[in-house]
Amino acid sequence: MIQLPDFNSLNLITMSPMLVTLLGALVILCIDLIKPNLDKTLYVVLTMLTLFIALGSTLSLEINQRGLFDTILIDGVSVLGQILIIGGSMLFIPLALTKRRFHDFSYPEFFSLFLFMVFGFQFMAASDNLILIFVGLETGSLALYTLIAMHNTKLAHEAAIKYFTMGALAAGFFTMGAAIIYATTGSVEMYSIAKVLQDRMGEAGIIIPIIGGALFMIVAVGFKVSLIPFHMWTPDTYEGASAPMAGYMSVVPKVAMMVVAIRLFGIYMELNIDIIKITIIVLAIITTTLANMMALVQKDVKRMLAYSSISHAGFVLVAIALDTTKGYSSIFLYYGLFMFTNLGAFTMLWISRHKYNVHHDRFHHPYSKFAGMIKIAPISAVVMAVFMLSLAGVPPFSLFWGKLYVLSAIVDSGYYGVAIIMALNSAIAVYYYLKLVVYMFLKEPDESRKNVVYANRAFSLELVIGIAAFVTITSIFYIEPLMSFITDLVGASGY
Questions:
Q1: For the chain, which residues score pLDDT lower than 50?
Q2: pLDDT digits (tens, 9 = 90+) for 295-336
Q3: Cα-based distances in Å from 331 to 83, 297, 335, 402
Q4: 0.85 cut: is pTM over it?
Q5: What is the CA radius of gyration of the chain?
């Protein structure tokens, strides 16, 4: 006799934020089918409304419950991940209201694909089933490849192809790692995997497939969060994508993959498999150090920020190896603050972009373009300087607190050498961030280019930049309650 599934375990309320996002994407497609060529403002409003409802649904979820036949886990980590994913999307989408030049925002498909992408990343953050994580990963990634290509320039097409190729490679490593884990444990559910591995740790030879599966997963995570040496696609992809999309890519997809990494590698940390812990720490140190070295020699500000985002990913990765509540909490604090600062910095680049390279034969944003900006656009220069100082970790700006909490978590776990290396890397990074500040404040502007610097202005751009700057500057006033909120959610999940 066939046993029917228990539909009580479907628990659709756990999927409400994702279902809202999915429904919003389908509504936009249906509206465009029924009434094409509507003003894009309608789609911006619908997208923002969808994200607001999804955020409200996320905040209303009860912690530590399961849904979709026990394949969805709503714990503090899941809720925090979805808050950052939706919050970053809400900060990004008003940029579509700009009236000039950026035709990719004029297509209804852009907004529908955007919501499908958000849905995929939410699904990754909410699931602890390896198959569903892979489904969410591919849903989000395929939509993101298309969004990059919709910028419709030669560099954008190249960026999308490179990202797609590396994404396919990451998917292959993820699939292989999941297959090894399944062959070893007989399950794709992470809670079952943890239990089986705990029971079988004493068996002869079992450590080899355990480590093998973990290494494949480390490579997959490395490609997605652009760790060195899996970072090859990042600078070119960021350069080819529109600047706000590059800023968005530097945060939201990485948050989704970091949630997966916390769940997955947390299993190995609990088993005290030192080789996995050491591998993650070494990879983080190499990533942070080499990315900083590469950023030092960049001639284009956008490529510098690309290597900067690689460095920040390495900086945060160490916290996963600590396997402490404070370490995991610092990841969400860091990316929550990084989201505003980095997206603000990339948006500042966007409002200065021109169709043709008027400043350099190849680059849209060479350092020389920003020379003397304090005399040409003083407010823009000050705001950009605030973002650079925050990325450098200069107090009291927001990312200083993120770095402080990560370093504090490392020290509390007894990794004093790692903390010193990461602190030295932060000091090195100050140079290439201040290099831009020096150009803006101490260099003389090119008189022939005064009229082309920061010509693209729109209320939506200024609103996003204003919000990002406000959060970056005022962080000292809210950092303690914010960290308390994050720690409570992470702690309630048993991490």
A1: 1, 101, 356, 452-453, 455
A2: 888 888 888 888 999 999 999 999 998 888 888 999 999 999
A3: 14, 28, 6, 8
A4: yes
A5: 22
